[in-house]
Write a structure and sequence with these properties.
5 strands, single chain, mainly alpha, five-stranded mixed beta sheet
């Protein structure tokens, strides 16, 4: 078989494996993640921007909605984006003159690190990594060929990455600094560079205008994120987790670091190493979450794979080629039950001490819990939707009903799992505040209340409705939403719309 054909088959095999892996790595007991519900609901509210994220994720959600919104389709969509990262990483290896072994090693490394975990969930992360990898590939192609078209491709990759997740700004800052201190600084004297910058600006301008028109909600979102989550992150933990997330790939990553300084064929690629150092320094300083930097690693794994392939090419060393991919696969098998939702909650509780030692039980609040936070965020949603449906079904008049939740995860899960297709649950949270329609008078309310609520007897609502009943609560103790209650408030005595509008305005003002 001719080499190009063989390589095509090998790449196709990795892509197919990527598309099917989610069927193996997610135990059926787990449901969708709370963040996924929000992004799926964005499909029904397409816009140039959202309070929580830029618009690209909503376009994928729209495609999923057209295809039926099955869990399989959701998982396959994000897996397909991850497959795109595989393909461009393969292209980077090829651009660096890597052989088939280098390409296989790079693919194996990508399958056996945290990137594969991020590609399981329908969140902006998969496309974020994909856009960063495209950016590196196109810029590398420009450096190697001096063909200006690749500058425009780079600008487009950055722009679409920005329209997916604003965190790509860290990559841009890293690249600007890295190119400035490397032999590629000549790029700043090229007119096409500035024309490419203009192209990127034009592509992101609609979202920037949307941000301006809505008083830059991204600033509030970052402040809220910093207050509720990032303040519990230790800078040392961020760096430590970079090692943990890619522990099986450490030989490849170390090889990449050495290659930038010792491998002569990489003399025009040293800017890649500098960009990594600058971006990691910025993430560390601003106390980012460990996975924020995931987009930096496909290109490093590609570079390291090429260098290892060159070292192990001849003589006795060629017999050692099996060690790097075997090490990655072996470590992947070890971390699999800790990093992926393959074990049922009961099995995890039996191994509580082991999970606790790995740090997987530490949540955003800085405390240890019974399950990893992401796993607990994938439980209890069907049960919640069933309780809400029970309350909703009791009402003969469904035209004047509001399903009001405490957080976006509850609202999105109800909208996804409810048997009533037009239930339209909302919340004073995230994008649901902008989707809350109060034109029709609200007569009944199905109220979903967090377990930490300080008014279990609903003393606040009882004077406003003729009848207030608790319908049920989430019984699954493994779910993060355990104890969340559902109330049915029937026959409003007063103008509830006015009160809701006042609360909504107050909430929006506070935000």
């Amino acid at each position: 078989m001719q080499k190009p054909i063989l390589e095509t088959y090998v790449l196709a095999a990795f892509v197919v494996l990527k598309l099917l892996l989610h069927c193996i790595l997610v135990n059926p007991v787990y449901e969708l993640h709370r963040d996924e519900f929000l992004h799926l609901d964005q499909a029904g509210h397409l816009a140039l921007g959202f309070q929580s994220v830029p618009p690209v994720t909503s376009m994928f959600a729209w495609i999923i909605k057209l295809s039926g919104s099955s869990t399989f389709m959701i998982r396959t969509t994000t897996a397909a984006i991850g497959a795109g990262t595989l393909v461009f990483s393969w292209f980077i290896v090829k651009e660096l003159k890597g052989d088939l072994y280098a390409k296989i090693l790079c693919m194996t490394a990508l399958f056996c690190c945290a990137i594969a975990r991020l590609d399981l969930l329908f969140q902006p992360n998969a496309f974020d990594i994909f856009s960063w990898t495209m950016t590196y590939y196109f810029l590398l192609r420009y450096v190697n060929t001096n063909r200006p078209g690749f500058l425009y491709y780079t600008a487009a990759a950055i722009a679409f990455g920005f329209l997916n997740k604003y965190g790509i700004a860290f990559l841009v800052l890293g690249l600007v600094a890295a190119l400035g201190i490397s032999r590629q600084r000549y790029i700043y004297r090229q007119k096409h560079f500035y024309m490419a910058v203009v192209l990127a600006f034009v592509l992101v301008l609609p979202n920037l205008i949307w941000q301006y028109q809505h008083q830059f909600p991204v600033i509030w979102h970052m402040k809220e994120l910093s207050r509720t989550q990032l303040e519990n992150i230790n800078r040392f933990d961020f760096l430590r987790e970079q090692l943990l997330y890619y522990i099986g790939d450490l030989p490849v990553l170390l090889a990449a670091g050495l290659a930038f300084f010792l491998y002569k064929p990489f003399k025009n690629a040293r800017w890649i190493g500098w960009s990594y150092l600058v971006a990691i320094a910025l993430f560390t300083w601003f106390k980012g979450k460990a996975y924020y930097a995931a987009g930096l690693y496909p290109v490093l794994l590609a570079c390291g794979s090429v260098y290892i392939a060159a070292i192990l090419k001849d003589g006795f060393l060629r017999y050692l080629k099996i060690i790097p991919p075997a090490a990655a696969i072996g470590m992947f098998v070890v971390v699999l039950p800790f990093a992926y939702p393959v074990l049922e909650p009961a099995e995890i509780t039996k191994r509580h001490e082991k999970f606790e030692k790995t740090g997987m039980l530490r949540w955003e609040d800085g405390m240890n819990h019974h399950l990893p936070q992401d796993f607990a965020d994938m439980l209890g949603w069907k049960e919640l939707a069933g309780i809400v449906d029970e309350a909703y079904a009791k009402l003969p008049d469904k035209e004047n009903v509001m399903v009001l939740c405490d957080n976006y995860g509850q609202a999105g899960a109800i909208n996804y799992y409810s048997r009533f297709k037009h239930i339209n649950a909302v919340a004073f949270s995230a994008d649901y505040m902008t989707w809350m329609k109060l034109e029709r008078p609200v007569k009944h309310v199905v109220l979903v209340v967090d377990t930490g609520d300080d008014d279990p007897d609903r003393k606040e609502e009882r004077p406003l409705f003729e009848r207030v009943d608790q319908i049920g609560y989430i019984h699954n103790k493994m779910a993060r939403e355990y104890g969340t209650k559902v109330y049915l408030l029937e026959n409003a005595k007063a103008d509830i719309n006015k009160r809701l509008k006042s609360e909504l305005k107050e909430k929006q003002h506070d935000d």
